[in-house]
Fold each of these.
Amino acid sequence: MPNTTGKKIKIGVIGASGYTGADLIRLAACHPGMEISALAANTHAGKPLADVFPHLGFVDAPPLVKAEEVDWSSLDAVFCGLPHGTAQDIIATLPESVKVIDMSADFRLKDTSTYAKWYGREHAATHLLEGAAYGLTEHNREAIRAARLVACPGCYPTATLLALLPLVAAKLVDASDIIVDAKSGVSGAGRSLKQNILFSEAGEGLSPYAIAGHRHAPEIEQEISKAAGANVFVNFTPHLVPMSRGELVTCYVRLAGSHTAADLAAALAERYAGEPFVKLAPKGTLPSTQFVRGSNFCLIGVYADRIPGRAIVVSTIDNLVKGSAGQAVQNFNLMFGFEETAGIAQQPLFP
Amino acid sequence: MPNTTGKKIKIGVIGASGYTGADLIRLAACHPGMEISALAANTHAGKPLADVFPHLGFVDAPPLVKAEEVDWSSLDAVFCGLPHGTAQDIIATLPESVKVIDMSADFRLKDTSTYAKWYGREHAATHLLEGAAYGLTEHNREAIRAARLVACPGCYPTATLLALLPLVAAKLVDASDIIVDAKSGVSGAGRSLKQNILFSEAGEGLSPYAIAGHRHAPEIEQEISKAAGANVFVNFTPHLVPMSRGELVTCYVRLAGSHTAADLAAALAERYAGEPFVKLAPKGTLPSTQFVRGSNFCLIGVYADRIPGRAIVVSTIDNLVKGSAGQAVQNFNLMFGFEETAGIAQQPLFP
Amino acid sequence: MPNTTGKKIKIGVIGASGYTGADLIRLAACHPGMEISALAANTHAGKPLADVFPHLGFVDAPPLVKAEEVDWSSLDAVFCGLPHGTAQDIIATLPESVKVIDMSADFRLKDTSTYAKWYGREHAATHLLEGAAYGLTEHNREAIRAARLVACPGCYPTATLLALLPLVAAKLVDASDIIVDAKSGVSGAGRSLKQNILFSEAGEGLSPYAIAGHRHAPEIEQEISKAAGANVFVNFTPHLVPMSRGELVTCYVRLAGSHTAADLAAALAERYAGEPFVKLAPKGTLPSTQFVRGSNFCLIGVYADRIPGRAIVVSTIDNLVKGSAGQAVQNFNLMFGFEETAGIAQQPLFP
Amino acid sequence: MPNTTGKKIKIGVIGASGYTGADLIRLAACHPGMEISALAANTHAGKPLADVFPHLGFVDAPPLVKAEEVDWSSLDAVFCGLPHGTAQDIIATLPESVKVIDMSADFRLKDTSTYAKWYGREHAATHLLEGAAYGLTEHNREAIRAARLVACPGCYPTATLLALLPLVAAKLVDASDIIVDAKSGVSGAGRSLKQNILFSEAGEGLSPYAIAGHRHAPEIEQEISKAAGANVFVNFTPHLVPMSRGELVTCYVRLAGSHTAADLAAALAERYAGEPFVKLAPKGTLPSTQFVRGSNFCLIGVYADRIPGRAIVVSTIDNLVKGSAGQAVQNFNLMFGFEETAGIAQQPLFP
């Protein structure tokens, strides 16, 4: 049901000192139905937002506080931008009345042993797992609308699954032979201090990382397997690109039967017709991260391969928007009855 | 008077294939009171906007046409993003009923001989010059509200004058000894093909350019002289910085009398109190282009110099927003009775 | 035979105003056995080198002249950095006494119909084609030593073939199922003015390009097919990365028989043992373009895939050095009896 | 006296895990007269160099050890790339037989109270201070040749003093009114983990920092004052530029008497005639960091100001080469009788 009350929804942000938290605040500040009522960030508690993110220095928002100081029951919704592992502990303590949009990894994997293996700890809030809706908006709207807790997908899974799920589900491609060569801007690595993301280390250079071992691989496999109706492994090979924002996956797929690249394109076009944010690249445009920067768009293109029987599917998003905070707002809009585009209709920032 | 009709203003953009045109369209697409009714760009006439700017491929806008094909009388307002020299010729032909917000340099300089000297041609629309309001919003609101033609300042003058005009006018600094060391992102050089703005030439490097000969120098001098009540020369030394957006001026000023840097800061704080877009950097924050990227903010800081009797004033904007399209929208809002922040309230995009 | 005369080799550079020409001059200036005797660049004839490349302003070199003004017979060797198509025409006119190291694409493809198809013109110097040695140094030393004309490989083929040729030749991988996801810095696109390589277009963004249609694909296929003993198609998908230098290919291969990724690594380690420039990445280091920047090194790593029966081979070079001018000097050293590392022993420039 | 023995000089590097240490190793690896005999880096002791700097993974060098494990008496020369404060403590313990080229700040300031004020600790090796030669090569050759300990200047002072010292000494400019607007690549901030030098923070942005409070200010003032014969303050305002390497200072000077910008240019040209590394920019070339990247060059230009009686002097270097490791090698060459250009004759790396 549409939100017609005109009353603002009181939101809180946990993990307000990270990049996903910051981008959520950026979007919230211009959202017609949000009021920023609490910002929690334990290591920066007591500081005004301007101290932590000078670019948000003139947003109407309260100072940062410790999570335990927040009166959660006064809030309607909480966005969680904490690192995996810590998110579940706080979320488990929130009152039932608060709807939760989690941007962390904690409620994405349905299998707790897979979670434990990839995230290095037992899941401590398994009672919330089943009810958590996977927040890939375009593929799960009804569940998201009804959920109290939405687990927003990782950035890489968002770009990958939007491109591949319809193709796998329609059995247009062989789910057991999918290669995802992924490229991400450095903001995807977060704001924690690490040597490899210093400007002088990551600049003017391209580096693969976490080959065959990235945590987004099991998430992608979970959803691809579900669509395929069979457990599959997916090659997922990420690379760090010298840019702050943007993510692009180049997916190499084997065509099923006598299908062609054009069939894939047609299937995607049909699947996403009318979607406000997921778009097929028009003829003459190759999906590039520049063309979605700062926006909630996902841009997809399909191309024939030189190897007979293969095709190439390219998908690009802004990792912090459609890959995180933007999709979180999109889900919020569903959960609270706003226009799905409310607060996230900005066009990309180019150049 | 406020615009309360709810009717959208029909706008046209001339020079829609340049960066300022693109940023204007980006902002217009989300403006509550604009309808994009015409896009003119002679060299790309006939193409959909998506072909020229893929990032704007999903904006609701007509295809590009030649300027002579537009029925200007059907429009309410025209934004002009043409290069200097060509702008005046088209603007001179527009019907009186159309209000014009010019982002080119053609109506900024009041002295036609200065114009001819710096822009290499005689001014051909001198009858429009006198009525043209200089569009430095915070310093000329009444004239802008009343004007039919607004000449938006150059990007460098915007950053520089917002910082210095109040200090010069109050005689806090010596107007004859002002040094402006300016730094700009590469988008300031436009989209025309030039070797020095190729990625491999401008990347990973910093270059001064147009030393003592940049066209924004006479514009700065015109306004500083007016505020000072005397003709002065201003040192203006621009540098090209390996980033797309952003502009920062570091101004070195000699303090008048026994004034201090703190006096300057206080004067600016008072002058801009309540302004939605011009802000003094809070303690602990140095103005940096990152903190205003993609937004209409101008961020200013004042610092004591090691040399006694001197101070340093730093000012930063996004060259395409407050330095061009954003300020143009801000002026449009004044001219058509919208909230001054309508369509340009976005927070900066960081990281 | 080693060059023990101490006499310098007189070299000329054709196409001295492009990036490969510039990097050749950069290396030649410090080579112990080269004397730069002629620089040809038709569009810049008459200018000192400093005007065209200020960074080479203090190199001891003659001014640029038109190709027809050069007395080729006074030279011992000519490096050609012209664009494809024009290179063959000049090379065909050079006296027999001059050895030619061609960095263009004109003598790489042995099949003239393939050349005509991909380069849009008939080959006009087919009499030179057969004698032209393919200049992938580590795989063709004897032919290069003996050749009068060496066709240096493209940058992408160099990175790709160094990684894959030994694996294909030893039938460790399935030659008909090779996917090469390639990433290049912008200098690979040359110095000609094109909109997509402007700083503001290519910066802060990642773009695929020439999907399934890049001219390096047939070159890679020619050499892979030769090693495989069968004609194969190879997927080759390049991407433009916001950095000036550097190239990295991520190759996805299907293992033959019961071979493992470790087998591939062992085969490469054995093949390149003792090579001064081709190196296996030590444990703990992922090949990254930063680690070879400005040097003649090629760094290769092999990794197991999550998909059973597959492996990932990563290879990185500096596109202008090992991918062009550096390998050209390496071949020159072989042809003229110098130490193979002469003039190209510089360590990478990091950060 | 020239080094004609052919025997290699055994060198050690203290602080081998920082950027200046790495660049020293890079240059040493190709120096005709150096043998890398010891690498000390306490926090990385026990690791091979490849673990700390993969780009140097194939240099012939011993693994890193703790400083106390080195047998200093077996070495001929030690380069010190430690942070200020820690450098003096180790240098004080080195045997007299070892010549020391210090790239830290510890022996640059002659006045110990100034040192204590700016570096936050008392100087603990004042007995070495007097004998320490200030290593601005072109201005102090005789002292450097004779010294046991050379204190290489900071990167900013190098660029600034090479441009200004001759002008101040000849009284062509007013030493009490010098403004130095400085711009540096991010590598100047070192390899320690700090938030503001993360790629996503420093990228696509320009930030002033340490306004009126940078430690290179007193160093510049010390040398300018000495040349002027009077104590002066100098404005020194640094900015962080989104590039890894490169440094450029734009100096705003007041002309003394009736001198002109041309007089300054002539004085510099005369002063540096014949210098291998310090060059006046030829007509048509503006000094830019790109043109000296990776090289030991300093490129200087002089320009008339729009303000009568003022001039602009621009100077650029690679902060890690002429600004640190390269100048250190240049001084080493003087100290050990090598050609002054030995090991540092590389041309700049562009693009």
Note: Chain D has two domains: 9-130, 156-319.
Amino acid sequence: MLSEFDLIKEYFQRPRHAAAPPVALGIGDDCALLAPTPGMQTAISSDMLVEGRHFFAGADALKLGHKSLAVNLSDLAAMGARPVGFTLALALPAAERDWLQGFSQGLFALADAFNIELIGGDTTRGPLNICITVFGEVAPGRALRRGAALAGDDIWISGTLGDARLALADLRGELAQPLDAASQRSAAARLHTPVPRVELGMLLAGQGIAHAAIDISDGLIGDLGHILKLSHVGATLDVDALPAGDILATRDTALRRAYSAAGGDDYELCFTAPASAREAVLALAGSVATPVTRVGRIEAQAGLRLVDAGGAPLELQLAGFDHFTS
Amino acid sequence: MLSEFDLIKEYFQRPRHAAAPPVALGIGDDCALLAPTPGMQTAISSDMLVEGRHFFAGADALKLGHKSLAVNLSDLAAMGARPVGFTLALALPAAERDWLQGFSQGLFALADAFNIELIGGDTTRGPLNICITVFGEVAPGRALRRGAALAGDDIWISGTLGDARLALADLRGELAQPLDAASQRSAAARLHTPVPRVELGMLLAGQGIAHAAIDISDGLIGDLGHILKLSHVGATLDVDALPAGDILATRDTALRRAYSAAGGDDYELCFTAPASAREAVLALAGSVATPVTRVGRIEAQAGLRLVDAGGAPLELQLAGFDHFTS
């Protein structure tokens, strides 16, 4: 039977990768050690994924490895921090080789894409639970804070929204008109293997162009709401300007509005920047091949006003996802 | 019903504490920010506690709050790092106010004792699971590494061993002679509210007196084994010299030997130091009122040799705890 130490050694310890700067010491001691780049701040975020809550029982292990790290990297992206490493704490019902092989493969493929390393963690037996804590670096005063939006700022969205929610609805059998096989594959990729907008976040922070940012994990309206609350501002959001995902864009208006405005699992960035920076934002996003769309404006008046393409008020019955009330 | 955001705000967010150096930004954004003390390394450790595995279902929430942080601080102690902050990811079956009140009280009482703050994390619904990642600071080259033991070093143990295991055995009804009420209370305190040896670890590292160290969480023999393996050395351990806990010391020799050598949940430090440093070790430990006991010696010959008080070889059928094979 696979012991805890064999499990770590076989699937998670990669000695030749473990100590590239700023990682001074990786897996295998009581603690990992980071040697922070002089003058830089360390950005830290922690996300916990639970079976039956964040993913279905029996979910593909490789995709789960990818997504577990992706949602954490998305938090670094929203701060504008450069990823440097992460810890993984893992509770498993049993030490199954197939699962471990797939999970670690998905995890390390994404880690390698961002040139970061697993530096420590914990494994134990228990109901499947994946807790990753990720570390990044950002220059003092450069981090993109939720509370930094200013009245007059444009509201921008990276990429597209809603296809992840569409895939989930399809999996749950909630769609009156189910997805065809090709659409299913395309939408499911958005749900299971989101790509965190790390380069965009780093450039927005590094060049001092954006004011506030957040990553869209619980649905745009809920997440934008955090920016508004912490910045003590309001906003008008053009719901019809929201960039719907490729598959969602083919569905009816009501579904498109609902899932792009309040879908969840998008892992795109919502950020604000002064109107004077419009061309700079577009140039910067273009330099990392990330589409960005202007979808509204920050205003001094509190509250979030949803409007349609013609500027008329929209009433959508929507709310951000909450783990304890839904 | 208590929402995720209300839950965090009500039980875990303490604004006036959240941004003392080196914490530049606490709870409430996409990431927390640390501003590392110039020239210092960041020590990081992550532990996951699962109901039914690390604690009984229905365990006292206040003690659980204490222990969840204590086991992480113990890892910092074993590295000799000064604690600076921690993140908490928490999966809960339901948002129960009584439980949250107790858990956060136990957690913050210990955090306050070490003047550290909760800087971020995650909450979700799911089978009870507590994942804490802790951060500390240590000067480059000073961290107490598992692989740094040298032949000729003394082996030292802080405090006493085995009472936590004794309490567990009693709770499980494994003892032929159960504990009386007073003994139960005393031993249970060692099991449920361990006190991490942070000051001792910091002094041992800061003054450069110790070579290797580890915290004893899975039983001394198993944990010392990690030092031996990574240091490429062996050792002779005087099992009868092991400092048994107050209650364990009153039991028979076989139980005393077994639980002090391979009990688990002790959260004491096992460290090695050159024989020339004996007086310095005793003086340093005395300065933080932490008893330390010399229990053996590191040797060039591989393997761990257990002996009794007379120096005769002892055969104990013992092994460190493993989450996937036990």
Note: The longest strand of chain A covers residues 82-92.
